[in-house]
Amino acid sequence: MSEDTNPRPQTPLLDRVHSPSDMKTLSDGELKQLAHELRQETISAVSETGGHLGAGLGVVELTVALHAVFDTPKDRLIWDVGHQCYPHKIVTGRRDRIRTLRMESGLSGFTKRTESAYDPFGAGHSSTSISAALGFAVARDLGGAPDHGLGDAIAVIGDGSISAGMAYEAMNNAGHLGKRLFVILNDNEMSIAPPVGAMSSYLSQLYAGAPFQELKSAARGAVSLLPEPFREGAKRAKDMLKGMTVGGTLFEALGFSYVGPIDGHDLDQLLPVLRTVHERATGPMLIHVTTKKGKGYAPAENARDRGHATAQFNVLTGKQKKAPSNAPSYTKVFGDALVKHAAEDDKICAVTAAMPDGTGLNLMAERYPSRCFDVAIAEQHGVTFAAALAAGGMKPFCAMYSTFLQRGYDQVVHDVAVQGLPVRFAIDRAGLVGNDGATHAGSFDIVFLANLPGFVVMAAADEAELMHMVATAAAHDSGPIAFRYPRGEGVGVDLPEHGEALEIGKGRMIQEGAKVAILSFGTRLSEVMKACENLAAKGIAPTVADARFAKPLDKDMILDLVANHEALITIEEGSVGGFGSHVAQMLLDEGALDNGVKYRSMTLPDVFEDHASPNAMYEASGLNASGIEAKVLEVLGITDLASKRA
Questions:
Q1: What does the DSSP assignment read for 363-419?
Q2: Model confidence, pTM
């Protein structure tokens, strides 16, 4: 998008701020002007790069106030999740690169330790910041002396993120240890999906009517209204009420001193409060700040998700610049298919963790709200909840991104797999996701699910196959089953009216060839077929098969491929130790490689890959058509064919 379309804002004060130390000399009035310019610069930058806009706009004043009051990077400022950190990056020496956000070799869309000393703890997933802040506080008191020294620890966590159990575990531990640390509760009443659950209700009560002190008094007086058994245990009753009433008593019960709520967009409130707690705090402090996601930019404020994640856009209109779709997204195909099955079977229900839109369950939530559950940012709870739904005779689909399902892994093992419960895992964002980088890549689910006894693990090669796998999962009631699919558009195949249940553990032949067989698991099949077109021009015609299942493997088909070819190549969008490793184990156990058949396994490289476009990441991984073609030539011993002909 040209600069003519989106002219750069005038930022005379921001131009003078190269690091937070430059803010120490500014008056409070100048800090207000700085916040205004920082907001305009954030909007301008994201209009060119795309990314998480609303969260950053909601914390502009808070960013300015924290850096003005605290002494970063000696004081460790930890942004939970990190998608609100763009303004923070601009004032911490990275403004000259802010228009490389989420691009290859550019700035990460999250905080990242290797990027800057001002990012003391990397993020991407939610609810880790308080644990990290406590770790820094304890390290400080034990004499830890990393670069820049070690001062205060400040965690900034949203009302959506604080609903996750890990945040409470950390607060409970922090209150017990009594260390000086600061938790800023950034309450914007808007996580990616509208916040759900008791925590959001609790916070919203803080705005209702009665002054804070009156509520505390009412709570104390209410003991006399309790039934007789509770009066005898008045102290216990008071403690119970503390946890139920508003005004910070829940946090105080955990050992935190509570301040708030204060207006997070009013520097006349923020600066004095932060200066006071910075000067006087001796133990853990919770500062409750209310903000508005997308603040100061009308198109973001008015958007349903407050501009959570945007493509490039026109600053004046807010209109996003998106390429037209050629095919439906895998996510939408899943959502549509699930609704069709739910219409036919009232036992089908769905569970997600704060991502109803991202997983396509918004369709299910609209049509069958009583059977669709958003459990908030609580994957562990979500998996166990789904397990009990299955034990209770329902047919739950647990729809989570691959990267977030990792957070519920113990529950997948202990509560689902060990008990053999038929939870259907719909795993979105499988494989590489591009600009969100290593923290969001779906690299490991094949490995961590296929090693579990009794699990069925599938991967869709295209959107029609995904429909069949939804049908397969709906019909499978003898144990846990999972199917994975990537982010983005399908390949444009014709879709059936209705998916059909597949035979468990049976793959399909795509084309018959000679000498080398390619066994694909997942959506790399389209790249395999492109490679075969190129190879055909060289007189090479591989056999191609779609495995469909990583567990159980189609043993007969694979052994037949090995028996009739000189070489077998497996390919998958996952890490080392997954589908290819299971195939290798089976072939070794069967003695199928004893006669000298060559076997190669193509996986993602054994590294955490930095953000780039998905195409660039797959090219670097060797998992695109040219990489597959090169692997076929290599295994046939004719790697230099092209150079000989040249």
A1: HHHHH-GGGEEE--S-HHHHHHHHHHHHHTT-EEEEEEEHHHHGGGHHHIIIIIITT
A2: 0.84
